[in-house]
């Protein structure tokens, strides 16, 4: 009996401790980052208490604050997945911005070809077009990696610049709506091809729900499927994976394509739910915030949901902090930078804190 | 991607409106009480408010409003033309009790102001440069702008006199109506001095991109342009680079003469201080601002920088005479006979587009003598 | 009237020459800095942040002190501090140098924008240029040959670094550490210290690159001062095969490519300018694809470098 309960306890510890560690260390890092940032504010003669109170007020205190926060989350969820999915294979893709921009453009162009199409048909096709475009764009980076050994980090970044140039060229040239006078845009989407808000009493569009769904599905893929398992092995050691006969090339193509498709969907939702057309406003930097989201979530798709929400809330408070504390808008950037650095630094703690070691608990 | 067919965003808004206006806003939201009956006015800028350009011009207007009694001014800079600006507007209304907003970038209008304004019928949204129309847009939205093309026409007159190479240059962000009108006016002003003058235009493609603006300015100087002006958000780089290459400069948006006083001829500046204080006073007095406001030199919407030391007497005389002419109202820079630079007739003999002509706000051509293309 | 020479189409090669010299300097400094860091076996993707912070710090100090050279010095010091910080963090086990680079980029930009607000307006002194075009009557050529001292310094530095890697003890030390941590330890070197110093020196160079942006060309501080030069320089090092002399050629190529768009417009090639503006990125990507190879590690690549493993 003692052995049975001992085994059970051991199993519990073996599974639970790493999970606990994976929660406690990032939260600790977040708090440490906030503490360092508080020192920065104090050195400038500003009140950290006021700073964090304003974040709470603007981002999380009331239905309006939640609207303020949640209406920014959707693109961050998708952009975070665009980094997190390839990261499972050890790839650092930082050019999701390009896939967002081109995905949005492609969705708008598709809509232009389907005037008069009902929502139930038109919207899925637009989403498909956006996802396909984004998927192809990032998969091309995976392909270059497999075929030519081109470093994906730098290639994705260069491709993002190219994507933005292509979008600008098309929006101001061949696909410009002549009626878009001072802000060159594609033709406005018909009302039937606009995605609206969710019926939850605050103005948050459906992109949020689909973003959460994408995170959950990605988690199932990575954590609960054999493909995800294979990807993790390949991510740990490509050579070992090849020796075991895993199709590393296909995995890289598949995961970059999926990540890119997510980014493309972010562009689709920006176009259909926010802008109503594709234009230069698609270049909003979500792709770059997505990098931060994915790393803070340690590339765990489920963790992307709270992390993206937290970051959106912090960014939602930027304006209020600018107005109330007389701090520049870059304050949030400094805060994010500090938290990011501390969090990455905390990676070194995994496996080193006795509290999370099995031996700490099992010894008498 | 199944949308809520029955409850799209606009349906939802309409329903809300029918439900008694700001049902949500007044019951669920922390609608901040206006402090002591003060009027809170919010200004929103797309870039830094000290950019020597577009945003600075608006911020100078905001500074004038700040000095008014009974008014509280709140500002936010670097607000993107995305859901960001929607949130900023709502945040200013809900957290600071703002009831008059000046979202100053063109791109804030559609869809962002049009999305937020119906939710807050008691708040007035004053937008720079938008084409408000009673049929399409909410009544609590207004648009205002100035005939700054006239300022570029006057710039052109000083440029025409100063140019020795008979080539003048224009660094432009994007080929949009506002910018095209400025380029055309600049050249036509110069051609009123000497019809042989040509104007080279280079588009940088972005509203703010320092290295590209400097390279464009250098390319213009290489082609022999000896007077240069621009239409980008922050003209600082163009002005400094052009003056560094020995070219004369004409300012835009704000006064850039401190950057190169010897080379600065004059500049077309916004004069938002008078406009903004006037509008705020109207609200304080309980009146309502017109939904569609336009004005020029005569109305104090724009002004010219003081003429620089390099401006000759002949230039000064023509500048002052033309300015007096413009001050009378009804001046036309775009008048027949005039062709565009592809040879199409823009205005026949005797035909003229006066400064207030709304057709000018959808300009899509470059006039004959401008070297460049709109696509 | 040769001074107003109508050079027409010749403006394009001239602009590319002038642009190559004007625009290349930040690329040159950042890529030399990155080259030095990568040779020691570490990659610092955060040099974009360092560049921007250097631009701000250089401008601010030049304005406050009245001397542009003090500004350059301050930018170099600030860059070295960023480098030291990066190097220090990366010595911890389990820390990913690429990710730290991205984080440092964010932090550098944030701090630069934060402290740079009051310096957007003031006019700081410019770095002086030396005129190498005195022999020519042609004003355009003379303008193109207005060469900044930092560019010359950069050229000298490229040659120096090349010599250093080949012929000096320091250079050898860096190379050994870069090629194999174990081998370096075996001969009594401290890899972490070598990398720390290499990253710091690399950061200092990137800071100087930033100071060139704000103090010479385009010569003012604002939040849009960099258009990704710091990131592009990292790509540039790869196809320069970690060779400082090749870094110089690559930087010149880039400067020239950047000048292509405006120059073409000025001679009447007016459509598709966005695509011309993307030329440097397309060029980099193309060269990167050509320079890479799927089968073997890149020729000249330091063995310990995470991006080529």
Could you explain how this protein is built, in words?
The complex is a heterotrimer of chains A (364), B (375) and C (309). Chain A contains 15 helices and no strands. Chain A is mainly α and 364 residues long. Chain A has a domain at 74-307. In chain A, helix 1 (2-43) runs antiparallel to helix 14, helix 4 packs antiparallel against helix 5 (119-148) and helix 4 (96-113) crosses helix 10. The longest helix of chain A has 42 residues, at 2-43. Chain A starts with a helix and ends with a helix. Chain B is of the alpha/beta class. Chain B contains 11 helices and 17 strands. Chain B has helices spanning 9-18, 23-27, 54-66, 83-96, 109-116, 148-162, 177-191, 210-222, 236-244, 272-284, 313-327, and strands at residues 39-44, 71-76, 100-103, 124-128, 141-146, 167-172, 198-203, 227-231, 248-253, 264-270, 292-295, 302-304, 334-335, 338-339, 345-347, 352-353, 370-371. In chain B, helix 4 (83-96) packs parallel to helix 5, helix 6 runs parallel beside helix 7 (177-191) and helix 6 runs antiparallel to helix 11 (313-327). Chain C has 309 residues and is mostly helical. Chain C has a two-stranded antiparallel sheet. The interface between A and B is large, with 53 and 51 residues.
Strand and helix layout:
The complex is a heterotrimer of chains A (364), B (375) and C (309).
Chain A: H1 2-43, H2 48-60, H3 63-87, H4 96-113, H5 119-148, H6 152-172, H7 207-224, H8 226-236, H9 238-243, H10 248-275, H11 286-296, H12 301-316, H13 318-325, H14 331-345, H15 358-362
Helix pairs in contact in A: 1-14, 2-3, 2-12, 2-13, 3-7, 3-10, 3-11, 3-12, 4-5, 4-6, 4-10, 4-11, 5-6, 5-10, 7-8, 7-12, 11-12
Chain B: H1 9-18, H2 23-27, E1 39-44, H3 54-66, E2 71-76, H4 83-96, E3 100-103, H5 109-116, E4 124-128, E5 141-146, H6 148-162, E6 167-172, H7 177-191, E7 198-203, H8 210-222, E8 227-231, H9 236-244, E9 248-253, E10 264-270, H10 272-284, E11 292-295, E12 302-304, H11 313-327, E13 334-335, E14 338-339, E15 345-347, E16 352-353, E17 370-371
Helix pairs in contact in B: 3-10, 4-5, 6-7, 6-11, 8-9
Chain C: H1 11-39, H2 47-65, H3 68-90, H4 97-116, E1 129-131, H5 139-144, E2 146-148, H6 149-167, H7 169-179, H8 181-186, H9 191-215, H10 229-239, H11 244-266, H12 273-277, H13 279-291
Antiparallel strand pairs in C: 1-2
